[in-house]
């Protein structure tokens, strides 16, 4: 009988230990899931559940970005987002990319107050997106402007002649597949491209005039491709104030947004693609036996801009 009592006691102890370790394993698993989610989503994981000011960074070369557009749409529909700060640091990019983001920001501004905070640079399509906000603040030394559109294409015909390469082509009409990098551009081709450029340019100037509440003539005078410091841009009515995030929050406060609300960055949950991401450029640098810092330099020099196609609105320093 004594042995059976001991066995019973041992079984109870074993059950308690087993229950303890099950609970401990559950707690560890839950903590791991929370930590993993926080690592994936950053502050957004905990911050988006309460009232806050959403911050969206728009950086680097602008192209068509479905993920960003969906993120802006989600922000617009979120009941906990009371105001939005667009943090812009971009030399521009494709006109279609700028246009699509511009239109989504305008939809967002229809439901929530939106302020653009310019960092180092908001040029060309970058400024196009900034102009979609209700208010623009920029640092005194920020670079703003470069309003305009361009198309660039190489002419490798002289190189082909040196290499003894001849291009044969049969076209349905003279302007089909023109301009071409394989032969010099003629007057008709240049005239066609210029019409293309001027139509998009006129649209760009029009939205600057509309959004900045200046005359078309004033917008046209500023849209000669010039860039301006933040202080100059303020004097030219291209921005509304000088400053940074503090000034952006102060403006949101004038729209009834509590300035004490936490600013939560809504980050992308997707990669930027394989080619010429920051990790890719570091990998290239490492493959060449160069330090990681060189990869950062390659990225900052804008290797991704080499692959822009079609009409672009981008400032090349």
From TrEMBL:
CDD domains: S49_Sppa_N_C. It is an enzyme of class 3 (hydrolase). Keywords: Hydrolase, Membrane, Protease, Serine protease, Transmembrane, Transmembrane helix. GO terms for biological process: proteolysis. InterPro entries: ClpP/crotonase-like_dom_sf, Pept_S49_SppA, Peptidase_S49, S49_SppA_C. It comes from the Bacteria. The keyword Iron-sulfur does not apply. GO terms for molecular function: peptidase activity. Residues 110-254 form the Peptidase S49 domain. Pfam families: Peptidase_S49 (PF01343). The chain crosses the membrane at residues 20-41. Its EC number is 3.4.21.-. Belongs to the peptidase S49 family. This is Protease-4. The lineage of its organism: Bacteria, Pseudomonadati, Pseudomonadota, Alphaproteobacteria, Hyphomicrobiales.
